[in-house]
């Protein structure tokens, strides 16, 4: 297991175990287990279109049987041909969340950050950053892809 994503494996397993312990049924998944399929650029992979149907079948199928909260590793995927684990790079956790949201036909995906929404620029660089009032999924995915 590569040290780049070891924390994801551990934290999702611990969190799912904790939820189960306090009475909330949860199941841990690795992103590559639910078929988040990517290009082969380790640390900067792109999610491929085939991901949406595969994730939908896996998570919604398991949900209808188990009724458990899925706890999924983020910013990870697998290369379709080689099944090698890859990472999405900067913004990959948000991209994973929105990908799962789209695949699951969610109305809303909440991403909690240390700023109030998506801003027009980095507030650490320019103090005049303003919130963007509305983003589509495709706009958010593009921003995550370019590292926003």
Automatic annotation (TrEMBL):
Top-rank taxon: Eukaryota
Positions of the Aspartate/glutamate/uridylate kinase domain: 6-147
InterPro entries named in the record: AceGlu_kinase-like_sf, Asp/Glu/Uridylate_kinase
One Pfam family matching this protein: AA_kinase
Protein family according to the UniProt entry: Belongs to the aspartokinase family.
Protein name: Aspartokinase 3, chloroplastic-like
Organism: Camelina sativa (False flax)
The organism's taxonomic lineage, starting at the top: Eukaryota, Viridiplantae, Streptophyta, Embryophyta, Tracheophyta
Gene: LOC104773676
